[in-house]
Amino acid sequence: MRVGIGYDAHKLIPGKGMYLGGVFIECEYALEAYSDGDVIIHSVIDSLLGAAALGDIGSLFSSKDPKNKDISSRVLLTQVMDLLDANKYKVINVDITLITETPKINQKADLIIDFLSKDLRVEKGCVSCKATTTDGLGFEGEKRGIACQTVSLIEKRIK
After folding, report:
1. pLDDT tens for residues 11-23?
2. Nearest 5°: CA angle at 72, between 66 and 41?
3. Domain holding 81: CATH number?
4. Buried b or exposed e, range 98-113, using 16+ CB within 10 angstroms
5. How far apart are CA 114 and CA 136, in angstroms?
6. What is the residue range of 73's domain?
């Protein structure tokens, strides 16, 4: 078994919503990013790549590559899952913590878990997604940005 930790953060800007865990969340903000800026999926990707020792999101999906401009993070996650599969790894568990004052994801958490479990090719019970605030502290608390941390557990397939 191998463990990986992922982290991502993006600046909040005025807008009409953002993708989090593959789900569009309507709110008064958007995320400043080269891709769709999905901090949850970016954090998941980095945790999986770290666990498998296969690099990081920036080395695989450069922000200098035009084909990654505005790309759906779910497309990137599918490519990472194919890479894990090619290296004979399978996901055991993913634990996600979104750090933000806004938007609130409580009512969308089940849908996020639905999307991610499909993309990660695991049962829903293998994906945990929760959110916390920083009680007004730091860039998240001041609503200048949003961050996410993920811990993943993978294992090498025997066959």
Report:
1. 999 999 999 999 9
2. 115
3. 3.30.1330.50
4. bbbbebebeebbeebb
5. 30
6. 2-156
